[in-house]
UniProtKB/TrEMBL annotation:
Keywords: Signal. InterPro entries: Beta-barrel_OMP_2 (IPR025665), OMP/PagP_B-barrel (IPR011250). It comes from Flavobacterium frigoritolerans. The keyword Signal applies. This is PorT family protein. The keyword Transmembrane does not apply. It comes from the Bacteria. Residues 1-20 form the signal peptide. Residues 19-161 form the Outer membrane protein beta-barrel domain. SUPFAM superfamilies: OMPA-like.
Length: 180
């Protein structure tokens, strides 16, 4: 009986160690440089933020899938004869990145991102704002240590943010994070 308990404990410990190597969970936050593209109106970028949870699922030695759950603010400012106006959109973003390791520390990341509009702060009335945004994202990652990382990413919106405006989100993100 003691041998059976010892074997079971060893099996559980080995499984937990293997699972820890295949899946890592962490948190990340950073700065957004967001603007709108595809619009006739001249817009300027806003500086905002993103923060949330990240996971890395190792599939091969140099290939992982990295799903994320982020709160991200995006938008733009524009000027006209009446003054300067700012539009800030708060999204729940779900990027799913394919992560290809170029070395032990550097990775290339590319994948789709679905975002759901949660809030909108603006100085002007945007009618018929769409509540769903789809984008493609690509960037680079660097592991400083086994647990600490930095990332740079560009996201190009593929859907228009409003039924009235022909504008799409465009955002450059710089992030830092920690894997547990």
């Amino acid at each position: 009986m003691k041998k059976l308990i010892l074997v079971a404990a060893l099996f559980i410990a080995t499984s937990a160690t293997m699972q820890a190597q295949l899946l890592q969970i962490g948190a990340k936050a950073g700065v957004n440089f967001a603007n709108l593209s595809g619009t006739d109106i001249q817009t300027d970028a806003i500086t905002s933020y993103h923060a949330g949870l990240v996971a890395e699922i190792k599939l091969l030695d140099r290939f992982s899938i990295q799903p994320e759950l982020l709160y991200s603010t995006q938008g733009a400012t524009y000027k006209n004869a009446l003054g300067e106006f700012k539009d800030e959109l708060g999204y729940l973003s779900i990027p799913v990145m394919a992560k290809i390791y170029l070395s032990d520390a550097f990775s290339l990341e590319v994948g789709p991102q679905a975002s759901f509009l949660l809030s909108q702060k603006n100085d002007f009335d945007v009618k018929d704002a769409k509540t769903f945004d789809f984008a493609l994202a690509a960037g680079l990652g660097f592991k400083i240590t086994k647990n600490i990382f930095v990332q740079g990413r560009y996201g190009l919106g593929l859907t228009e943010i409003s039924k009235e405006a022909k504008a799409k989100n465009s955002v450059f993100q710089l992030s830092a994070g920690f894997m547990f």
